[in-house]
Amino acid sequence: MASQKDGADSMISARNIRLTLGARGAETEILKGVDLDIRAGESLAILGPSGSGKSSLMAVLSGLERATSGELTVAGVDYSSLSEDDLARARRGKIGIVLQAFHLLPTMTALENVAVPLELAGASDAFATAEAELMAVGLGHRLAHFPSQLSGGEQQRVAIARAVAPKPAIIFADEPTGNLDQSTSAGIVDLLFERQKSASATLIIITHDQTLADRCGRIIRMQDGTIASDSAA
Question: Residue 90: CB partners within 8 Å, gap ≥ 6?
């Protein structure tokens, strides 16, 4: 069952989104006609088991993957008509992404991991902003440490700081606690919501964890490439 809400004030509006992957003759349809509106400032969980299409939906909504067909508008920009290079430019500064595997650059310090993307985006105060954001996530004492010198929870804090530092309109978090133990996970989830509030951002969490999904204001359940249900948490 597809889901559709009033799209008048949507931060994200998706219509009949389809995604097919694989070589000719061996294609697999991953997303099968998804309709979805996400309002500015919402916290939304996309919940489902492995293979349900939830991570693929995040990839399309964030501009990391081009839909095979359908219409997609993100923060007022028509993503449907953009090339891959244009999608990268459209994401810059407007979308922050936190991934399960952290994806920090091993040869850069915590400060550099947050500051360098800001510099590349043209920020004049990149290092000052990065330091302030790392202090906000409790890592003011770890600025000069490399990822290999940080715990898993600390690395995820750096990743959150990097995602939130540009004050994006939308934050995506794909299984943000998947590589963390239970006690560390609780603190990371609290921090993620705290930084969302600080940035006044829309938060979209991709997860298979019902407890994490229940922290969000709205839950979408994915099943076999479609939205099976859409409800308040």
Answer: 63, 74, 77, 79, 82
C-alpha closest to that of 74 among 53, 54, 58, 56: 58
Cβ burial of 109 (10 Å; 0-12, 13-18, 19+) is buried
Query: Which residues, at least 6 apart from 161, have a Cβ–Cβ distance to it below 8 Å?
Result: 114, 130, 133, 134, 136, 137, 139, 195
Phi-psi sector, 171: left (phi>0), alpha (psi -120 to 50), beta: beta
What is the rounded CA–CA span in Å between residue 176 and residue 6?
29
pLDDT tens-digit series, residues 6-61: 445 789 999 999 999 987 778 899 999 999 999 999 999 999 999 999 999 999 99
Helical H runs in 40-151? Answer: 54-61, 84-91, 110-120, 126-136
Beta-bridge partners for 222: 227
**To which residue do tokens 């489902």 refer?**
48
Q: Which two tokens stand for residue 92?
A: 């810059």
pTM across the whole model: 0.89
User: How many other CB atoms are there within 10 angstroms of residue 3's CB atom?
Assistant: 17
- Residue 103: left (phi > 0), alpha (psi -120 to 50), or beta? left
Phi-psi region at 119: left, alpha or beta (left = phi > 0; alpha = psi -120 to 50) = alpha
Which residue type does 102 have? F
